[in-house]
Amino acid sequence: MPEWDLSPPPASQMGDHDVVPVGTHLAGKRVALLVTGGIAAIKAPLVARALRRQGAEVVAFASAEGLRYVTQEALEWATVRPVVTRLTPAAEHLSDAEPFDAYLVAPATYNTLNKIAWGIADGVVTSAAASALGRMERGETALLVVPTMHGSLHNAVLTESLARLAGFGVRVVPPREAYGKHNIPAEEELVAEVCRAVSRSPLRGVRVLVTGGPTPVPVDSVRRITNRFRGRLGAEITEELHLRGAEPLLLHGDGAYQPPERLPFRVVRTFDEYRDEVLRELASAPYAAAVFSAAVADYRPRELLPGKTPSGGALSRLDLVPTEKVVDLVREGFPDLWMVTFKYQEDVSHEDLLAVGRRRLERLGGRGAVVANRGEETGPDGEQVAWLVTGEGEPVHAVGKPAIAAAIADHLETVAAAGQLSPTAGRAASSRERVPASG
């Protein structure tokens, strides 16, 4: 660690209570954070600020037991709102004047979960949860609970209560399991659960396959040919779709970058594995769209060299042959699938790039879009710049990975709202036969 020169921090326009925004998925939404009496309550201020970073207005309700582990002042600093600590004549627990879009019970203790499940409303948190149940039944709000407790407390009584709550429509957020305990998940995971619960996106519940990262081709048992792309954009696209309530799966090429564990993803090690997994996945589940951001290998050695080949000799010259075009295999096998493909170019003009994008769009048969970008075009801070070419209107300009991911998700929302997304399951049985064997 470098030595500190004792200088003051750089000036900032942010106020003491401000948060750095990371998205707008909760913009205009009110979230009630119900804090109960477990040690995990110490994380409640961090959860509140993470919700605010997505644009939420957060109001904390805290039981007397919860305030043994986190102070009222800390919650008020994190939420920038008064904390509701008791039932009052103002009936804050009913939230008539300012209803909540979601209630998040985090942590949710053994005592609180059983009370909510069986209709006991004997305090500010359980009374707020009882009101939330009623509003949830009318489709007015979402209720999420985060079981957080020692493993010995997970008994038949708790299991029955959790099943009962889930049956009511309550979202039981899976805890982080470690050291024989149900631990509270990371703040980002809780925020994602809330975003998904309140989403009204046309993509909610829609399966989308996403690919990202490199697809190496082996030379021998230790060497392989790959590229510099790491797959961060694929993860960004997957997260954007996930937050909007879609059901994405990321097939991530093997490289140095690993997507966040909160995202649904599988790692594919080679081009052959990538090709096979794409075709198998599309044939086995009802996907309505696929986004192909993987940097797919264009060439492979004609022959795989055995073992670890000595330097020189066979390695001094490799005979390369073209790989199969996976997007063409997909289009042939799944003609109803809405496809978003990528086209990267260098040493071309902007006009030529868009022309290439439009030609690629024609190959998709009118069911898809193309993300075109070139190495010469970057944002003010060196960000990736792309143009989303569709069959409608002018290409959409996006600067930076989050903006590119949002543009793709916006496009898919538009076609979903127009009824143009059709699930693929069962539509291409022949594609199962066409899946090549790995090797």
List keywords for this structure.
single chain; elongated; five-stranded parallel beta sheet; Rossmann fold; 2 domains; eight-stranded mixed beta sheet
Task: Explain what you see.
The protein has 439 residues and is of the alpha/beta class. The chain has two domains: 169 residues, Flavin prenyltransferase-like (Rossmann fold, 3-Layer(aba) Sandwich), CATH 3.40.50; 228 residues, CoaB-like (Rossmann fold), CATH 3.40.50.10300. 31% of the residues lie in helices and 21% in strands. Strands 13-12-9-14-17-18-19-20 form an eight-stranded mixed beta sheet, with helices on both faces. It has a five-stranded parallel beta sheet with strand order 2-1-3-4-6, sandwiched between helices. A three-stranded antiparallel beta sheet has the order 5-8-7, with no helix packed on it. The radius of gyration is 25 Å and the shape is elongated. The protein starts with 29 loop residues before the first strand and ends in a 5-residue tail after the last helix. 42% of the residues are buried.
Secondary structure blueprint with pairings:
Elements: E1 30-35, H1 44-53, E2 57-62, H2 72-79, E3 102-108, H3 110-117, H4 124-137, E4 142-147, E5 149-150, H5 156-168, E6 171-172, E7 176-178, E8 181-183, H6 187-198, E9 207-212, E10 217-218, E11 224-225, H7 232-243, E12 247-253, E13 265-268, H8 271-284, E14 289-292, E15 299-301, E16 320-322, H9 326-333, E17 338-345, H10 350-363, E18 368-374, E19 385-389, E20 396-399, H11 401-417, H12 429-434
Helix pairs in contact: 1-2, 1-6, 3-5, 7-11, 8-9
